[in-house]
């Protein structure tokens, strides 16, 4: 992290209104930090979070109704002007652009800037936007506020600024590495997801953007989060590149006891894939932002769970004490498997989370929600501490999110490239009363193994069930091995949890562990 003393003074000469606002607080008076030159940092945000948690929760102000009534297309017609980006045409390695409130984004956020001179407000200015007509522009309040922002940096081509990180809506944010297309999102916090009493959605209410110096490779953003149950301080360290890394540090102060506190939550979309027993009628073979959950356990095991679009709500929990890493991945990078020129699913990033230090006892929860629309996220993943979360607690967590298209499993270990599941007949011409599972394992030592005796299939179920025809065969088309087995449909009167992997001649694992639930 770079220190505040190294940050050059704010330089946005092309925007005189914004320049005049630097060093002023929200009410227009000189801010304490701007006047004294004191460094504003994470501990100041922590103090603000603590002070807010000591008071009763107050919902943030809302935007005018006519902006709430905009549909997505209507909001999209309001565009931020590219030449109004913060730090545009300067020697700064980052730029910032801002989102206009409207439609789903009904609560403006406070934006403040930090440089060597201190802290100051970055006020809303509708001159930074182009509107569909003058009538709309005249209706916009002068003090409306921004819905969020996105950060840009050289990423794909020298001299061209590309989006690398975006904050918009509640506590949602998402990142990009080189040659990637926005897909899944992260969230600052999840509370009571899937609860019968309803989920609570904490929201970032205030942001502080630290102005980078000309030679900085990273950028810092501070944020304040609030909800009825908790207030929190956040620090984001952005390190963009082929794989973009976001370091997240958070300090939470609870107002109320929380039944289910979700740390480092991710949300994604899965409609159908090669593992779908049934799918929508569509010309595209697959449609998803992520195709699986990966866990790196403390005992060294790697655990892969292909995603599904279920017919009813699925919530699965996995032991994750001192978990080494977890995330939602898009392993399938073949355009032919999607055939979508618009959404480019093969370019969606993985989001891999590495805890900073030991988080202790806890579990991961995967939520999969029935969906018939690619617009809606229907997958959620987060870590839940085992210890009860009580009112009046202070909690601290830190972790990295790596946004990339890279593999995560060690090169020495094979991984599941595809999971194909469908109905089959045991004998041709007979009823299709069997489920055939075919898992394509590639990587690690598998490419150098030719003898069938050197690769042993291992399949087990977590309850009594019939599993037939278990075999592993070399697949010359992938350079790996295919593990296949059959499960009679009459074994599926209740959900059947399965585990599978390939072992070597001496019994050691050659691959990660594949996990799946077959349901009636």
From TrEMBL:
- Does the entry feature the keyword Signal, yes or no? yes
Q: Which UniProt keywords apply?
A: Periplasm, Signal
Gene Ontology molecular functions: carbohydrate binding; catalytic activity
Pathway noted in the entry: Glycan metabolism; osmoregulated periplasmic glucan (OPG) biosynthesis
Q: Which domain of life is it from?
A: Bacteria
Residues forming the Glucan biosynthesis periplasmic MdoG C-terminal domain are 40-517
Q: Name one GO cellular component term.
A: outer membrane-bounded periplasmic space
BP GO annotations: beta-glucan biosynthetic process
Q: What is its main location?
A: periplasm
Q: Where is this gene product found?
A: Periplasm
Q: Which InterPro entries match?
A: Gal_mutarotase_sf_dom, GH-type_carb-bd, Glucan_biosyn_MdoG/MdoD, Glucan_biosyn_MdoG_C, Ig-like_fold, Ig_E-set
Similarity comment: Belongs to the OpgD/OpgG family.
Protein name, entry field: Glucan biosynthesis protein G
Write down the species.
Salinisphaera orenii MK-B5
